[in-house]
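Entry 0007
Protein: PPM-type phosphatase domain-containing protein
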Amino acid sequence: DRPALALTRTLGASAASECGVSAEPDVSAYRLRPGVDVLLVLGTDGLFEFCSNTTAAGQILKEGVTDTCLSSLCRASRRQWAQSSYNETVDDITAIAAVLPPDTPAGLGS
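Output (C-alpha cells):
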C-alpha cells in the first residue's frame, strides 16, 4: 500500500523516511589537485543518465556557471529522456555547479 521508490537518499524530504528513504548523505573525501580540479558539478542521475561528466564540465567551463548554462544541460537531458522513454517518462533532473577558487587547499578532510 506504499508507493514504490527507486531511491535511497533525498534532500529535504523527511516525510519519505516512512518509506525507507534516508536524508543521511553518503560522504566522500577527495584530495583536490590545485590548478586541475577547478569545477564542482552536482547533478541527479536524471541529468547524468544522458549527459557525460565530460560534456557537462566542458559546457560549464565554456559558458560559465549560469542559470542559462545549467538549464540548457537539464533541458538536453529532459529531451533525451522523453525520446528514450516508451511513455515519455522523465526522471528528476537537477544541476548545481561551482567554480573552485584557485587557492583551494590541496586536501579535504585532512
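Curator remark: Residues 67-84 form the longest helix (18 residues). The chain has a mean pLDDT of 82.
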